Amino acid sequence: MSETTKDLYTENMIINMGPSHPVTHGTVKFLVTLDGEKIVDMKVDIGYLHRGFEKMCENSTWEQVMPFTDRLNYVSPLINNVGYALAVEKLIGIDVPERCKYIRVIACELSRIADHLTNIAASAMEMGAMTAFLYFVEAREFIWDLIESFCGARVTTNYVRIGGLKNDLPDGFKEKTLHALAEVRKFWDDVNKLLTKNRIFIDRVRNTGTMPPEEAISYGFTGPCLRASGVPYDVRKAHPYLIYDQLNFDIPVGEQGDNFDRYLVRMEEIIQSTRIVEQALEQIPKGPINICSPEYRWQPKEAVYDKIESLIFHFKTVVEGIKPPNGEIYFPIEAANGELGFYLVSNGGGKPYKCRVRPPCFPLTAAMPRMVKGGFIADIIPTFDLINMIGGECDR
Amino acid sequence: MKKSNTLKRLTEKFPNSIIETHSFRSDDTAVVKKNDIMEIFTFLRDDPDLLYNFMMDLTAVDYMGDESRFEVVYHLYSLKFNTRIRIKAKVAESECSIDSITSLWASANWFEREVYDLYGIHFNGHPDLRRILMYEDFKGHPLRKDYPIRKRQPLIGPIN
Amino acid sequence: MIADLIETIAKILFVFGINMGFFSPILGWVERKQSAVMQDRVGANRADIMGYKAIGLFHPIADAIKVMVKEDFIPDGANKIFHTLAPFISLTCSIVTFAVVPFGGQYEIFGHKVNLVIANLDVGILFVFAFASLAPYGAVLAGWSSNNNWSFLGGMRASAQMLSYEVAMGFTIIGVIMVFGSLRLTDIGMMQEDFFRWGIFLQPVGFILFLTCAIAENKRIPFDMPEAESELVAGYFTEYSGMKFVMFWMGEFLEIVTISAIVTTLFFGAWHLPFITDADLVNFFSFAGQTGSNFLAILVNVATFLMKVIFFIWLQMTIRWTLPRFRYDQVMKLGWKMILPISLINIFITAVIILV
Fold first, then answer.
1. What are the tens digits of pLDDT across the range A181-235?
2. Which of B23, B29, B57 to mutate to test the interface with A (most CBs of A within 10 A)?
3. What is the pTM of this model?
4. Within a domain: residue C328?
5. What ipTM goes with this model?
6. Is C42 inside a domain boundary?
7. SS3 B84
8. Pairwise CA distance, residues C210 & B4, whole Å
9. Does residue C345 sit within a domain?
10. Which residue of A has its CA nearest to C154?
11. B58-99, pLDDT tens digit by residue?
């Protein structure tokens, strides 16, 4: 090889992959230097979906931030809702009722299932397995129908409130959910058959985009990608929030940290999340869903119309916003992609002084050059898909 | 209030660098002098009793009107001991720079670029300090409190 | 003389008509509908004429109108001649191959001997290969002349992949030629009159290898590296639009038909029904008189052949919609390190068996 090509003069080819390229979904640009098919160098350029989330938050009341969080990770918006609500509740120092916690867990896990389904579906499609894509998209349809049934929207949910929820679960939700989860499992089985033991698929993802655990930690990996590298870190286990400490579920861990492990971890997490939802539905208690503390959570409409105190509270919280005490907190939750942290600073006013989101896929995207350098141009596809970079969250 | 293990060790080790510590809502926080962050972070990362091996988040806050305007905020996490700590370094507007910790954690690379982009804080020793979320021709730093929310930037055309 | 001319023209019209008029438009619909069935979807069903939708069968017509009125776009800096030439090469290569594919036996109609193949060449199978190896020029020229990096990469991949698989395909076919002892496709078809002499029984390994190579030649999933829409946008035809794009597309569909036809001819008894010889057929239809019985036998032959072709088209489509795509180096590895040695071993074993 070296003997024959020694005197051959070749030039590297620099190619713009994205932002309008099928694999980058319009949200990221790779500047790839190619030597034939091999990747010599790669520069990642993000920010195409930057909407100034933090600037908007600083100019809205604490409650007005909630719809913005839908648009962070738009594949699993409920997790962002819950994360933000929990962060503000920690800042205020309040605790929501038990039933609310259960509903939030159900919402989170349904979103997690939807997120993983979408992610695996998209990766499969980009590797040419269109059928697996449509199977999982159909499975996701069941989950989104469920989500629609309790919050009225499929993507921009805006369901969770600081100190409670927008509304309770609808009647017959348990039966509908169990049926939907059974359907999801059926599709899961089909895709498992189509991909997990498919030699072509394994060849594509095995030993590509490998990340050893030490480097994964140094790069700030969290979530499925970190667990694929063999580090069993899950916020739900490390710092249990809501009711995760009362539920029985496992954390799948990979061995090699390559794309195949990331795929396997995600597949297993779908099953674990269905387990969590089933347990939560089994144990969910009756009771209120909102805290009774009118300075933070709106009173019911009847009270607002009937009682002057409630009306005053309503007026104050709507016009000025709720007023958490002075201070700063950081609250991490396990989003579908990894640790989603909210760093909030309050100066005692009705608007956040600072509302910082720690996006889980931001460090993952930063590690793209490390993961694909030396590989083939075709390796960009599974690597980029299986880190699940979501533009809205990465660019905020 | 009883100090956590980390904060205790930190104040013992660097009595002159720590400006203050607090644990609001049990979030351990240490405010440090910005010139000593490299030693502090190396200690936090490598000390066998602390082992803060994750640099989870890096951001900044603009306290406009304060004596030292900016605070660079680091969130560390120790996988082994399952503890978290927040380190804050004060950066004055007149001397708007701080040492880069890219050599300690690879994840700091993009986070520092983001802070540079949105707050204009310079990171000394950063390998590739460019704007990341904004485009190159963007004027100003949008997350500074004196950047008006309704400000419009001139439209830029294609480069060539 | 005149009869010969009429016969040839009739056969050309028939083959051309069935390919351009039936297969190439209908396969677009078939691909959509079959993938839809596999994926729990409805598939194409919107085009309608006076409210009749005919399970989406009007879509090919709508497609045709659309592509004909679309702008034929040639990008800046493209080589206009080659950019225009490329789709023609691609389409021509896949149509011309049909000239040597037999779709029936030898019959007498009105006292005139009719051989159901357009050109009964001595080296029929080499003719197929000759045109198959011209096909990469279409892809390479398209990739190179478009002045686009993605097209260029696609063209490179296409040339490397198609050349590699040409070699492997050539070797897989040698086993077949050895057992039948002829390069003439009509002879190969004739010799498979006996069900147990079908190519699939004589050359089972050869069949699998040939089908693999043929799909790889056709650049469809799992071998669609030159197009690889998620990697190279659309590969070598990124910069094509309108009718020229459709010519690539038709070329691809016709190549599916070609592959099916050749596989049928070489391995699946060509136009023969199992256990029924051509003479049996003519005898069976003897009630229709001499010409009539021959004519009916021809119809049965052609129908049988078409059914087999359609089966293989279905098989290829199923493969297309089931598997993900390979990586470029893996395709090369498969071609050179797996298929080529196995085909060589296959030749060797075939030779030993023939000698013994």
1. 998 998 999 888 888 888 888 888 888 888 888 888 888 888 898 889 888 888 8
2. B57
3. 0.86
4. yes
5. 0.88
6. no
7. strand
8. 71
9. yes
10. A37
11. 999 988 887 888 889 999 888 888 888 888 888 888 888 888
